[in-house]
From TrEMBL, chain A:
The gene is kaiC. PROSITE patterns: KAIC. It is an enzyme of class 2 (transferase). The keyword Chloroplast does not apply. Its EC number is 2.7.11.1. This is non-specific serine/threonine protein kinase. SUPFAM superfamilies: P-loop containing nucleoside triphosphate hydrolases. It comes from the Bacteria. It comes from Hymenobacter polaris.
TrEMBL record, chain B:
The lineage of its organism: Bacteria, Pseudomonadati, Bacteroidota, Cytophagia, Cytophagales. Residues 28-109 form the KaiB domain. GO terms for biological process: rhythmic process. This is Circadian clock protein KaiB. CDD domains: KaiB_like.
Amino acid sequence: MSYSQPPAAPPLPKLPKAPTGIAGLDEITEGGLPLGRPTLLAGAAGCGKTLLGIEFLVRGVLDYHEPGVLMTFEESADELAANVASLGFDLRGLEANGQLALDHVQVDRAQLAEAGDFDLEGLFIRLGYAIDQVGAKRVVLDTLEALFGGFHNEAVLRSELQRLFRWLKDRGVTTIITAERGEGHLTRQGLEEYVSDCVIVLDNRVVDQVTTRRLRVVKYRGSTHGTNEYPYIITETGISVLPITSLQLDYPVSSEIISSGVAGLDEMFTRRGWYRGSSVLISGTAGTAKTTLAAAFALAACQRGERTLYFAFEESGPQLIRNMRSVGLDLQPVVDSGLLHIEASRPTLNGLERHLVTIHNRLAEFKPSAVVVDPISNLVSVGSLLEVRGMLTRLIDYLKVNNITALFTALVSGRLGQEMTEEGIASLADVWLTVRDLEGVGERNRGLSILKARGMAHSNQVREFLLTDDGVQLLEVVLGAGGIITGTGRQAQRLLEERQAQAHAHELARKERELTRKRLVLEASIANLRTEFESVEEELRQSNREAEAQQHARQGLASGPASLPSTQPLG
Amino acid sequence: MMRNRRDDTTTTLAATPAAANSQPWQLCLYVAGPSDRATRALANLRGCCEQHLAGRYALEVVDVQAFPEVARREQLLALPALVQRGPGRRKCLVGDLSNPEQLLRSLTAEAA
């Protein structure tokens, strides 16, 4: 098996390609089928080989103005036209307009005998005639191998087929040759030997009672291509191959910040919201208001005037609107104005691929700026973990390439669910919020925290939030002795704090009073002492006065007039 | 040698052209251009017919390259192709008819 890889030197002419117009296939083949060369389309019965071929022709006519030739070897043109009419392909109409030539080749061995040397010039002439009739650029041969049932002489047949493929190349028509899948070979008759430019294999597998069709580009000479197996489905509008994705991580990014729709939540991010085009995952157990957060985001996006697509896998649109109204998120006006489209379906209704194709198709039709998938975990019910992961990777890639902000909710239940989110898309999500029950004594409260937010710092706190009549309200953080306190604990804490404050006030008042008392005591003591002092002073003065009186009396007796100072000492 | 035709009117190479439509053996040899194989097939066919069905057959030779729509209508793939419309049901013999016995068997199978 040799895969053609492009050399490292950059300026190489690109292999010209013919776009198929088939959703997804052009992405995988990086532009389409090799222009002017044959492509082998191998697959088991019921894979949609014929349909893919016809879609290639019809899209060629309608989208690329390239007329086509459909040469059928099994079904008659009428049968085919009837079969694909339900997909909206009007083969007869295109034929009438001269854009499509149909030729049904009947290979009937009963009517045919071989007698000697022959070639398949008749086939060449018919094909050439059909090509000239409409000026065809595209040809589908469905299923060429039927020729092997018509002729005994295989050697002639093989050399003629080889000639046919060379002839097709010389004519420069882009050709699809369909072939049955064979045992041990890609095709039953080994046609892959002759078609060396491009080989695509279709496969139809039943795993766990779910049928999945897959497409793989086995070989594409002169071009790179996606080498994985890609699921595809047959939708109302034709074949749709997943992914519609970028194979590289080189998309442009936006630095614009948009709101989460919850003011308090925005505050938890240093840049007050998340980046436009990022993918946000909200995981949590049942009843933790994931949907409400998602609806708040959707409503905020719509109120900014952005088109928003909401995939509801649990509730119907009207139910969602009713429920969200009860928490103050009125989605009805934005639904009425056409900004919000709610796409509700049961996950088990369809296989995983079909869901993702539906999502892709709606995205392509609606061209939203924001997308909500609520919840992605329900998709697990219709696919294996690995498949869901692969699908979501592609979906997220697609959204990112288109700069669509995506919000996914994921229901987590126990260990398995947690793993789903962790392994599934947590690595792809740019912002991961968890909402959880903070279960205390006899009550549950809702807590929200940011697990990661690429490209910005964020709060590390678990914030309690309430669903109020005005939407989601984040409560201020209350720190208790044992950490963050929520719910009734929050009330208790508040009461406790109030009591503590009261006690503190009491204490203060008490101390005040004590002080006053002490001051009174002090003042009383001072008064006492002063009284004491005054009485001593009074006593002293009294004594002095008495002593003076005695001296006067003594001087008056000894020297007559009292002209001498009393203090003069006696000489 | 070969002659082409514009429509369904029969051009015969039979011995008696006037009675072409009434001959029991209605034969048409489709070839792709003047090739060795075509020439060989025609020679083989005429030899056989002249030898065994002289006067009882009408033969028409059509160059499909010139009239490709005939190839589609007649469901031709392999060339040269001898289409026998009578006697019996329509049948087709492809190749250069290089085996005279096989050719004769095919031509006379239904008539016997």
